[in-house]
Amino acid sequence: MKRIKLLLFTMLLTSACSDSLLDVKNENTYTDATYFKTKTQFNEAVLATYAVFSHTGMMAREWYFIFDLLANEAERSSALVGTELQLTDYSYTNNNEDIVGLWSSLYRMIFRANLSLKVMETWTPADASEETLKAQYIAEAHWLRGFAYFNLVTNWGRVPLKMTYDESKVNSSPRASVEEVWKVVENEFTLAIPDLPVAYSADQKGRATKGAAIGFLGKTYLFQKKYDLALAELTKLTAAPYTYVLDPSYDHLFSEDNINSPEVIFAVNHVYTTSNTQYYMFGGQEGEDGKTFHTGRAQEYGFNDWENVTISNALVAAHTYADPASGAAGYIDPRAGYTYYGSAANGGDVEYCDFCSTGAIKYPFDFYSNRYRKYEPYEFQKYTEAPMSGINTHVMRYADVLLMIAEAYIEKASPDVAKGIGYVNQVRNRPDVMAKNYTVSVSQSEARTIVRRERRIELAGEQSRWFDLNRWGIAREVLNAEHPEGPGQYPFLDKHILLPIPIAERNSNAELAADVSNDWN
User: In 3-121, which ranges are continuous DSSP H helix?
Assistant: First the structure.
């Protein structure tokens, strides 16, 4: 079985029961206190928390728009309107539906993780195997809660902490300091590590592993510039019992079969079910169209389909840089041809449908210019036909870990630039990429430029750059250079480094509302 079946259901959140005129309790009504009794039902609580990855603002749809457009990984096309258009020109406000959806879903993930932790307090395992399962489910709930708070603190800074089920049911909550939220994130991933398995059976792939917890703990330290602590965690993933390696095929990372890549540390698994579920990602999650888990990215980014966005010109240009060996201008990174369709001059793939029954087709560059190839199925079919992609969304993969290790070595108090560049070169030596290696005898400043460019190219279109630019403190200068202010383009301001607190949250949370400045954050 390719991936875990995520139970998509709406949990009953109150303890109220419907009484008849005779005051007879409706025995068919469940509450959180009466439903969860067996190991199957405790598993359902955890799976319902994973299910939030498909909700509004998350990986089924809005996630890729939010972070690709904000970071200029993607640019608008004529088809892009409304909510997403606001993201690319920085005109969004505190009621932007994509941003509101992201906030709501992250707190829904916290709510469900809190519920999972609460109900499992009542579980008395019948045997040793159930003891192991209980510990695993508790660890998964902590990992999911850590993931949610990681994304809340990196995108909004100070946010409310809701660490129990009862706290999750209270609207008005004050914002904690950034330091307090980071401490929670560290603690959540630390709690998750001991009881998560190193790997799962084939039918359980997609759940958080011990490696995913270690990877995110290391990432948490990196974002706080705790470089030595980051190295202590991230380097664990390069040795036994972990068997992560770079996938020999860059293309395989973005195929329907990428769940079986040896590089995956954590991915959101997508699967398409039936034709009546094609448009579930437009708010149909956990409703009548919710029994699926696919993503609309291939359809929405595809040049032969909806083509709502294009790959940004700046990202294409980044693939051409000075030759790492000779220093001569005009070296084209080999990953260009795996990342976008383009021209021979810029290194993009000049044909598509290489594996179609009708044979390869020349890419019409003069008509389309540059378009995303990554996460698209166009090497195997001419059209996507509908939003039903089953290509999994990478959240963390081994190349990302190697580049985080490289960054930590380059930036730590006593830099080891040579070792950092060595990790960069590991990524460049992927068998079907084999980009020219950098010499290790470079300055710290030069090494910093190298690792930042490497992250941009290797992780292009994987919703990484927004977090990178803000972590490095260069978002404003870089994005204003790539997106100059002018007709139809607002400037990127200091306030844009954090997302606006949704107006609905402010309306329902008086303590938070009193703490918001400039109608933003």
Answer: 32-35, 39-50, 62-70, 82-89, 97-119
Task: Give pLDDT tens digits for 315-344.
Answer: 999 999 999 999 999 999 999 999 999 999
Report the DSSP beta bridge partners of residue 160. Answer: 175
Residue 268, CB-side half-sphere exposure with 13 Å CA sphere: 23
For residues 324 and 486, give the distance between their C-alpha atoms in angstroms, rounded to a whole number.
36
| CB of 99 closer than 8 Å to CB of 58 | no
pLDDT tens digits along 127-175: 999 999 999 999 999 999 999 999 999 999 999 999 999 999 998 999 9
How far is the C-alpha of 251 from the C-alpha of 321, rounded, in Å? 22
Q: What is the DSSP string of 431-460?
A: TTT-PPPPPS---HHHHHHHHHHHHHHHTT
Residue holding tokens 């087709």?
Answer: 361
Whole-angstrom CA distances from 316 to 282, 300, 345, 371, 483 are 30, 19, 11, 9, 14
Residue 178 contacts by C-beta under 8 Å, 6 or more apart in sequence? 153, 157, 158
Q: State the DSSP string of 497-516.
A: GSPPPPHHHHHH-HHHHTT-
* Residues facing 310 on adjacent strands: 75
CA distances from 443 to 104, 172, 318, 322, 449 (A): 44, 50, 21, 16, 10
Tell me if 499 sits within 8 A of 521, measured CB to CB. Answer: yes
Burial class from Cβ neighbours inside 10 Å (0-12, 13-18, 19+) for residue 31 reads middle
Instruction: List, in order, residues 6 or more apart from 473 with CB less than 8 Å away.
Output: none
Find tokens 């970071």 and name the residue: 71
What pTM, to 2 d.p., does this model score? 0.93
Q: How far apart are CA 402 and CA 459, in angstroms?
A: 12
